Amino acid sequence: MPEPAFPANTLDADGDPKWITELACADPNHVLHVVRGLDPEAALEAVGAKPHLVQPCELPGSKPDDWTSLPGAALGVQPGTAAALLAGRVGDWTFVYDDSGHTFDEETEALSASGRTAATSVFTINADASMTFAVDGEQVAWINVDDLGVEDLAELPEDLRAAFEVAGVFQGEDVEPGGFDYAVTMRATCALAGLTALTIEDVRRMPLLGASFG
Questions:
Q1: CA 8 to CA 196: how far, in whole Å?
Q2: SS3 57
Q3: What distance in Å separates the CA atoms of residue 59 and residue 65, rounded to the nearest whole number?
Q4: Is the pTM of this model over 0.85?
Q5: Interior CA angle at 133 toward 178 and 32, to 5°?
Q6: How is the chain split into domains, by residue range?
Q7: Which helix (DSSP H) or strand (DSSP E) does residue 186 occupy?
Q8: Residues 101, 124: contact at Cβ < 8 Å?
Q9: 211: helix, coil or strand?
């Protein structure tokens, strides 16, 4: 597998998209959802946010400490009490970032209802990394990075396979020959939704919605 086909300076030292790293707290336990053809407010509600808690969200210039994410700081969510959800739209795709992993891959099916395509990437504090891909309300693929090899890509749907090829392999000492690094699902989710060139400055400039959850 080639190296990630992401623009220069868009990945951090671990291979994660920098815009996600810059949203996240230290040692994150977080989730990224993407869905095509659904607006941010509807996407937040699809992953479980209560409508009356959804509000416009302006990210602050910095995080107050290592354990507070930018969305958490914007929404006044204290670390450990709830998740901060952040949603924005780029072209046909909407992303929902969950800073604390309170939403899960089960929400992917709800996001993909009514003929839509959606994906969810999960990364836990224990370095468990996975991705769910769903179309029209049905799960099509679930990928555990620990079990994923280059030879498995041929079995994926065409658009998901193409996303993993763009995600590539970020070389490091923990990557086994023929395997993938633990940031690959975040990169593949971004590649699927056309977010490979997205920066935190781009995110700051777009209309954002947020909600506390859980």
A1: 10
A2: coil
A3: 15
A4: yes
A5: 90
A6: 18-213
A7: helix 184-192
A8: yes
A9: strand
Tokens of 33: 């959802």
| Amino acid sitting at position 175 | V
Instruction: Name the one residue in this structure whose structure tokens are 């220069």.
Output: 8
Q: What confidence tier does 176 reach under pLDDT thresholds 50, 70, 90?
A: confident
Residue 61 CB neighbours (<10 A): 7
- Residue 85 tokens, joined: 């959800």
DSSP state of 52: G
Element (H, E) at 84: strand 83-90
Give the chain's largest Cα–Cα span. 49
Phi, psi (rounded to 5 degrees) for 109: -65, -40
Distance CA 62, CA 66 (A): 10
Provide the pLDDT confidence category of residue 198 given band limits of 50, 70 and 90: very high
Strands of the 138-144 sheet, one edge to the other: 55-56, 209-213, 83-90, 93-98, 30-36, 117-123, 129-135, 138-144
